[in-house]
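Subject: two folds for Thursday's group meeting

Dear M.,

Sorry for the delay on this. The cluster queue was jammed most of the week, so I only got both jobs back this morning. I'm pasting them in the order they finished. Each block is the input sequence followed by the predicted C-alpha cells. Could you check whether the formatting survives your parser before we put anything on slides? The first protein is the one we discussed after the seminar.
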Amino acid sequence: MSLSWRRLQAADPDFGTQLRDLLQIDMAISDEVEARVRDIIVDVRQRGDAALLEYTRRFDHLQVERIEQLCVDRHEQEAALAGLPAAARAALLEAAARIRRYHEQQKQSSWRIHDEDGSWFGQQVRALDSVGIYVPGGKACYPSSVLMNAIPARVAGVEQVIMCVPTPGGEINPWVLAAAAVAGVDQVFRLGGAQAVAALAYGTQCVPAVDKIVGPGNIYVATAKRQVFGQVGIDMIAGPSEILVYADASARPDWVAMDLFSQAEHDEQAQAILVSDDPQMLEAVAAAANRLLPEMGRRDIIAASIAARGAMILVADRAQAMQLINRVAPEHLELACADAEALLPQIRHAGAIFLGHASAEALGDYCAGPNHVLPTHGTARFSSPLGVYDFQKRSSLIAPSAAGGARLGQLANILAQAEGLDAHARSAALRTQAPELL
C-alpha cells in the first residue's frame, strides 16, 4: 500500500490558496444532530433519572431498571486499580505523578495592591465547586483522558469531580476505572452521549449538577456541550487531532513517519503535516511511511487520513518554516531538528511544542506532564492547553479607605456624567461626603 501525500511547495505562487484548502475542514453540525441533541437535553431536564435510564437502554443497550445500576462505587474503582498488572499499575501511577507535578506549577494565587491612603485592591482566586468529566467508553480505552482532566481539577482545589463514561453492553474498561481511582474522581456514572452532558449541566435526582464540563466525545457530546454552555462552563469544542512536524536533515525518517502516524491513526479526519527545507528528507519520510504502514494495526485509518488531509511541504529555509508554523497554529508541533530550542522564540502559535529528536507527541499524550487537551484547527492563536487555570475563577476586590473612596468618587462622578448615567454619578459623589461615616 502506497500512501497518497499532498505535495506542496511554499515557493509556488498559489501556495496560500493550497494551504487554505489543506487546512479547511467542515466543523458545521447538521440540523438533524442539533435537533436530536436539543430534544435529549430538554427531556433530561424534565424527566431526570427516568430519561437517563431510557436513553441508556436505547443507545448503550444496557438493560437497567434502577438509577443505582448506573453508579460505579469507589470500591469498584480501587478493585480495577489493584487488578492491573504490577508494571501497568506502576506506569499509571508514575504518569499521574508527573501530570500532577507539572500542573502544580500552574496554580494561581490571590493578590493585593495598596494605595498610600490605605485603600487596597486585588484579586481573589477560588477553585470551582464541581466539575464533570466526560470520558469516551465502551471498547475505547482512554485512561490518559481521565488523568489529564481530573488531576488539574484536583490540583486547582475542586471539591467534587464527577465522571461519566458510556458502557455499551455494560462493558467498562478497567484502565479507565483505575485512572479514576488514581486521579481522585469522586463519583463515576455509566452514562454517555448528550444525555450525560445534560445530566451534568442541569442535574437529576441522582447526578449532581456541576459548574464545568470537560473531556472529549463524539459529535453528539460536542454538540451537547455547545448547547449547554452558559448554564455551565466547558473546556473547548475540539476538532480532529493534528500534528505538524518540522524536520531538517538531521531527523530520523522512520521516527518522523511514526510520529505522523501517531496522529493519523486517530481517525480519517486527523491531519498529519510534514514541513522540511530538505527535499531528500521529504522523500525519505515518504519511503519510510510506505515501508512501515503494513505493520500498523490501524493502517486503513492512517491511509485514509493522509489521503484526505495529509501533506508534505517544502520550504526554502528555517525562517520560512517558522512563518508557516505560525500560520497553521498546530495542535501538536514537533521540531525534529538540530538546536530545536533556538527556534522556540520564533514560535508564536502552537498548542504543545515538542523539542528535539528525543521528543515525541506520544510522550505528551500520556506521561510527560503537560496536558494533552489542546486547541485544534488554528485556535492555538488565541487559546491554550487545558490547565489548572481552567478550574479556577477570579473575583475582583475593591476596598477603598474613606479618603480613597472620596478621591475615587470624584473621578467616577466626572466620568459617569460624561456617559450620561446620573445614578452612577450621584452614587459616586456620595462617597465624597461625610467620610467620617465610612
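Second protein, same layout:
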Amino acid sequence: MSLWDSFLPARDNAADGAVLTGTARSGGIFTGTARVLDDPDAFGTFEPGDILVAPITTPAFTPLFALASGVVTDIGGILSHSSIVAREYGIPAVLGTGTATRRIRSGDTITVDGDHGRVLLTDAASTATPEAERSRTPWVVAGLAAAAVAGIVLLRRGRFGR
C-alpha cells in the first residue's frame, strides 16, 4: 500500500456480484438511475435525481451535487471532495469502491447505501463488463492539485497553519 492509498482509498471489488463495497461517507439510502461521468465534458447528460458515479470528483463536479440523489466513486476517503460535499448536501455517498465506473453503466438502476458503504447493482449493472480499463491516475492528480491549490489559498489568507 502506497502513501497515496491511505488518502484516496479504493477497494478492489470483484468483477461480478450484485454488491459493490466502499466506504460509507454520507448517510442515507437511495435507489435511482446511475449516471457515469468520466469528465466534465459529459456534465450535460446529468439529469436531476440521477446518482452521480465517477472515478473521483473535483470542485468542477460541485454543481452536480445539488442535482444528485446519491454519489458513488472509485476513489475517495473521509476528507475527499465527494465526502465533504455529499455530507453538505445530505445525499448518500459510497466512496472508494475501486470499480464502480467499470461495473455500472449510465441508465442502470442502483441503490446507494450510504449508511453501510454498499452499492446494490440491479438491471444490467450486475453483469456489466468493462469496455476498456480506465486509469484513475488523471483523477488522482487532479484531486491532489485541487487540494494543493486550496491549501495555498488558505495559507495566503492566514486561515491555515497559525
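Two things I noticed about the second structure. Confidence is low (pLDDT under 50) at residues 124-140. The chain is about 25% helix and 20% strand.

Cheers,
T.
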